[in-house]
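Colleagues,

Please find the record for the two-part complex below.
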Amino acid sequence: MSISEIQTRRVFEESAPLVLSSSETLAPIDVAYQSMGTISPKKDNVILLCHALTGDSQFAGTRDDGSPGWWNNLVGPGKAIDTDRYFVICPAVLGTCHGSTGPASLNPKTGSAYARDFPMITIEDMVRCQQELLRQLGITKLYAVIGGSMGGMQALSWAALFPDMVQRCIPIASTAQVSPLAIAFDAVARQAILSVDSPGCEGLSTARMLGHITYLSDVLMDHRFGRSLQDREDYSYTFDSDFQVESYLNYKGRQFAERFDEATYLYLTRAVSYFDMEKEYGSLQAAFEKSTARFLVISIRSDWLYTPEQSKQLVHSLMKLNKNVSYIDIDSHYGHDSFLIDNRALEESLYVFLESRSHVT
Amino acid sequence: MSISEIQTRRVFEESAPLVLSSSETLAPIDVAYQSMGTISPKKDNVILLCHALTGDSQFAGTRDDGSPGWWNNLVGPGKAIDTDRYFVICPAVLGTCHGSTGPASLNPKTGSAYARDFPMITIEDMVRCQQELLRQLGITKLYAVIGGSMGGMQALSWAALFPDMVQRCIPIASTAQVSPLAIAFDAVARQAILSVDSPGCEGLSTARMLGHITYLSDVLMDHRFGRSLQDREDYSYTFDSDFQVESYLNYKGRQFAERFDEATYLYLTRAVSYFDMEKEYGSLQAAFEKSTARFLVISIRSDWLYTPEQSKQLVHSLMKLNKNVSYIDIDSHYGHDSFLIDNRALEESLYVFLESRSHVT
């Protein structure tokens, strides 16, 4: 299967640090990444995967705990993203706690974790680190860059920041400009973390519960949970988790808080809130003006975090620029997280779009 | 204007306590209420107003801080709910911190506030206290019972619990069965409160920020805030409230935490989560079987907390029972809280429905 172990590479040394969007500098920066497939002699078959908020570089294979990589269902030999043809690489983003440099990393100046001393980062900063990694690996063209949610924001930034490198750009369940509703939810999530003084993971658990609600749809909640009670016949008349939906969210929150870093959650949600290509480039037109990529914009019908409406606005902007843009709205009632779930329409549109040769340069 | 000061009446003495839905007993119970208008000799012009989660008995007139009562725009002489014709009374619900007995009240057994020793209460318990108040005031018929959000749940419970008393029932932006989505949001809100050990109001502030998001619509958020920054030209690259929407929610959260009681918020949201007329009565048909009321069900187009879909389901159930039911979906983009805002369609439908004489007994 030619699937790699997770590797780590130093992409910025202290002698030449990365200048962040905030104008601060950061070094050293390490990037962890996984790859699958074989790179062609011309290095013209590289697909970059960009992961979502709490994702990591492990898109394929099996984790230590036995669970599969986050896109194992879509990426592999003979799958929608076919590793018999493509060399697929996925770096953990700058700022995460999964191997790349982030708030959970050791600050060489203090010898302890950066935590809230980490500088603020943006989606663009993440992309710059990815580009430096690829440059060091001798990769100068991307057959495609693909990502869901925060990963889609990275994909769009790639097309804007490195227009000559990106041949195909596929943002899924994403947006070019994060909405006030999404900003508001993340502000509450951070407040839940920041208001808990004591060490522990209560605040992060609350934040994740809230995030999780926004990843589901109300229809899915009705179908999956309804008002069913958890292991009881009647209300407890206490503040315990009487309802299945409460119990589920509590479990998800606690489980997440055990594996994720609190400061990391603060930084990554902030990077998402800051994502606004209109602000960054003046307009969406200006952002994508120089891009020669073909775009496949994919939205999820029941996604109320980054809505189909937002994807359509992006498509309209790209059409106005006379870009080659396809759009599909996936009819799933699983909500925002649908892109992580087996979905035939998603598989097919990725496969067809990637295999079509019309634009290969 | 014959508007009363807030009055308080003891409705349950320790010698004869209220048996709650949970089977626990509670006494003493005081109920604070405000009234406006003149009761007719036959006492056949009484309209009961039921307030929402964080509301109180002060529906009219001016508060100490100069702000108007919560339905001052709709209730008064010559207004939609015309106090030249009707005697309007609004009790503060059992469990709130606005004059009626609740978690913030003194527990006579300990001499300090009940706080989390208060027994769990339900919407039905609130209604039983209101009914006892009215009984003591010699009121045996309600020309109408009207309420928005949690107030609408009380109005519906009135029609089910006291079918002979209610002539008109008007639930607004409400539901007969709280959805898993609404349960989920309230579970997160309570978790935010319960996870903050230290005294202070950080948890309550977070909870309110979240609640506030669910009272607005995404369209309203786009229109009112967009991605505008608060008193700055560019991002701060900190966790401060850079965005207007963040600043607004923070302000609302802090302001609320100063005037409201933390334990009260826990209890009232739990009462809402527990509200389920299907569970309570076996079915909606069984719930309303004996009611002779005319119903006016009002939903708000942009309300995603208690959706128009839920109101329509209620209307269908009432139609199946051959009840006299009218329905209006108000085309407002202000979200759930639209019923508290000046709205001509709401005013007119209330006025017309109340004035129509066809069914007066």
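Chain A has two domains: 7-178+276-355, 182-269.

Comments are welcome before we finalize the supplementary table.
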